[in-house]
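WARN no homologs supplied; continuing
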Amino acid sequence: MRLGGYVVWLTSAILLTAPAAAQSDDTASEFEVETALAQQIVAESVSAVEFEDLVFSSIAQEMVQRRAAMTNPTIEANPPLSKILDDWIDERMSNARAIFRAHYPAIRLAQEEFFVDTYTTDELREILAFVSTPTGKKYVRSHAEVRSNPAVKAAIADFAVKIAQSDSPSVDELSERLAGYIYSAEEGELVQAE
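OK structure emitted
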């Protein structure tokens, strides 16, 4: 059975230093080679920016739908209210991207561990040779197997939970911004509260 994951590797590295350890230096060396190959595969496959774009294309679609659901004639007829709503959505997206960028190393690590756990050293070399070609890059970008791996899905789900928990800026903040405007019966329109 092959060793997998960095925690297991660290444990085996500690055991390698003990006299009674059954593992050899060749095992640790092979794992280090596999880890380095997996890191190269992930780096060659999809850059952090490309991965972020893949993730956020669906989030952006959801935000467009949210914006449409929040639309009503009063907001659309009053540019200041519409701007407040648009700015709020922009801030939420910016915050979500910041959370993603902070969480990306965990997602990348899960991807690397997937490769180490799944493939032999020779298979990793073949995969790296393939993903380094234009055809290989195209294939990887269109292939969802890595992202469907339970560990990768868990890392992505953790990121999604952090976005949901962030609530920044919050709906309450949006309400406060909108509360800065009142309907003036005299002027027949919304005016900024004084």
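The first helix runs from residue 6 to 17.
OK
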